[in-house]
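ok, trying the design again with the full structure, not the truncated one.
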């Protein structure tokens, strides 16, 4: 196999796996983790979420999370089929739609939970879970839409 088709295929597979992994992770949080935590006493839920926020910061998460938009952009640049390129670009933009709310909303909410509310007092877990889950739902939907865009790109010879 020539080098360019191999690199294109690797970028495509990496983009698909990254998008699917992060969309699935975000969906699992919205569907199961956050409702389960919200059913716990606030002190237990807060302590557990603080621990999750530390444990998730691993290289595998970073590669999938930050790599997705990059892998999709590389696939767009290397794609041999013009019909696939707009879908690769869309996937890259949609995956950025998972990254940006994370940095602008979810991470600041996590930091507020760590230190307490805006006034320095404890942030009520109910307030946290509602706001965090709203932004997380958007991340999951953006990731799912990216997976769909990648699927279309691949069917177009991507």
């Amino acid at each position: 196999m020539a080098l360019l088709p191999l690199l294109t295929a690797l970028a495509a597979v990496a983009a698909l796996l990254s998008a699917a992994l992060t969309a699935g992770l975000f969906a699992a949080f919205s569907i199961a983790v956050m409702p389960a935590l919200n059913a716990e006493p606030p002190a237990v839920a807060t302590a557990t979420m603080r621990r999750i926020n530390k444990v998730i910061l691993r290289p595998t998460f970073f590669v999938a999370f930050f790599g997705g938009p990059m892998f999709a952009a590389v696939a767009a640049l290397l794609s041999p089929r013009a019909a696939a390129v707009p879908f690769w670009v869309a996937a890259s933009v949609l995956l950025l739609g998972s990254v940006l709310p994370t940095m602008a909303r979810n991470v600041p909410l996590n930091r507020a939970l760590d230190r307490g509310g805006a006034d320095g007092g404890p942030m009520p877990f109910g307030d946290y879970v509602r706001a965090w889950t709203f932004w997380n739902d958007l991340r999951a939907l953006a990731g799912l839409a990216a997976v769909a865009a990648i699927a279309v790109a691949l069917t177009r010879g991507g």
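Keeping the full-length input from now on. The two ends are 16 Å apart (CA to CA).
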